[in-house]
Amino acid sequence: MAIIEVLGPRKSYGTTVAVDGIDLDVAEGEILGVLGPNGSGKTTTVECIAGLRRPDAGTVRVAGVDPAVDRERITRLVGVQLQQAGLQPKLTVREAVALYASFFDRPLDGVALAERLGLAPKLGARYADLSGGQQQRLAVALALVGRPRIALLDELSTGLDPRSRRAVWEVIEQARDDGATIVLVTHNTEEARRLCDRVAVIDRGRITALDTPEGVISRTGERRRSVAPGPARVGRMPRCARSPHDARRPPPRRASRP
Ligand SMILES: Nc1ncnc2c1ncn2[C@@H]1O[C@H](COP(=O)(O)OP(=O)(O)OP(=O)(O)O)[C@@H](O)[C@H]1O
Ligand SMILES: [Mg+2]
């Protein structure tokens, strides 16, 4: 059963076409990765799913509702981490996690979550006084503190040091084990491999591949290695669209990767 349905939305900014008709279903409990070059429309797609932007055409449904219209329901269902967090600069870490937890019925312990993300020494610090990586980790905490049914995460680990990145991954895995459905934008193939059931590649506002992480990454490598692709390879569309209903959850990955 798809909890997120994206049916051909288009979104332009003036003459720039950011999203050009994307079709995508995300099954409940699935982690879908979104990969693609800068400016390809990933953030705009996530913003349309979050209901923060209204597509010019096409349809988006989240848990059966239009996220741009039923804002109240979406706020209680969806945790969002955006590339630009835009948090109140004077809010402390402790205040921020308490505020975001208050939007949800059965939140996590916000202080414990912040501590797991390495923010223990910064609980009393204001958002404006955090380093870039600390702000980033707080944004991940704020997206997940409500234990949302759906989490939308736009470049959750970009700019983080390796240890912080692992801490973020473990928090995502915990959310997955709790049953959350997650869409995460990433440029990191290791992250996609570790966390995602499927990966959608977006280029110039369209999906160019939708497959398991291994399927997508091996194809990308194949294209990179081929210096002079033959005619069979030029323009070949990647094998597409395993149904999300087929997405078989691999065994817990933490067990095999301490
Ligand atoms: N608020 C805006 N006003 C005008 N153009 C915008 C706006 N937001 C995005 N765009 C344009 O829309 C296109 C898609 O942008 P988007 O932010 O969705 O890309 P992205 O795939 O998330 O890129 P990145 O990897 O750099 O984050 C780009 O050409 C961008 O310049
Ligand atoms: Mg982006």
Explained architecture:
The chain is an alpha/beta fold and 258 residues long. The chain has one domain (2-220, 232-243): 3-Layer(aba) Sandwich (Rossmann fold). It has 9 helices and 10 strands. The protein has helices spanning 42-50, 71-77, 93-101, 110-116, 132-144, 162-177, 189-195, 213-225, 253-256; strands at 2-13, 16-20, 23-27, 31-35, 57-62, 78-81, 150-154, 181-185, 198-203, 206-211. Helix 3 (93-101) runs parallel beside helix 5. The longest helix is centred in the middle third of the chain and has 16 residues, at 162-177. The model is unreliable at 227-258 (pLDDT under 50). It binds adenosine-5'-triphosphate and magnesium ion (MG). The site of magnesium ion has 4 residues, from helix 1.
